[in-house]
């Protein structure tokens, strides 16, 4: 079965972005960024919520088109309101109902592990439904003091098992955990 892997940058105080969705303050360049881009080659599928997909618009993503960074991946955008017309690319699909069943079936389908791009609210929904298998944190040496949390408003607790870790000279730590749902 394919694993759903939430691979995301966070602050030391558990935020994936500022309240407005911006990510100013995260270290965007360095060996950790190169390793991240290289790791994306291992995925053939990306899941994200509406806000995360639309965040890409400021970086040139056109509505209904795949993100250039994930261009080799099938995109599943989870949204009740987002719609694309004829401009929708065949690799960009909106999921607007039966989200839990869809993810369960996707994990059973052939392919590589599945990349969960975000955002916090969507990740919290998947986490609450025990659908995330691994968590890869790019822990940045910064504190935002507020913003969008790693798992949104979820209050679920879970034990983690450290699978791997790597420290970069930039101060970023890469932490890979398996989630052990109770």
TrEMBL record:
Name the UniProt record assigns to this protein: Diacylglycerol kinase
UniProt keyword terms in alphabetical order: Kinase, Transferase
Domain Bacterial bifunctional deaminase-reductase C-terminal per the UniProt entry, residue ranges: 2-174
Entry GO MF terms: 5-amino-6-(5-phosphoribosylamino)uracil reductase activity; kinase activity
Organism the protein comes from: Dulcicalothrix desertica PCC 7102
Organism phylogeny: Bacteria, Bacillati, Cyanobacteriota, Cyanophyceae, Nostocales
Gene3D superfamilies cross-referenced by the UniProt entry: Dihydrofolate Reductase, subunit A
GO biological process: riboflavin biosynthetic process
InterPro entries per record: DHFR-like_dom_sf (IPR024072), RibDG_C (IPR002734), Riboflavin_Biosynth_HTPR (IPR050765)
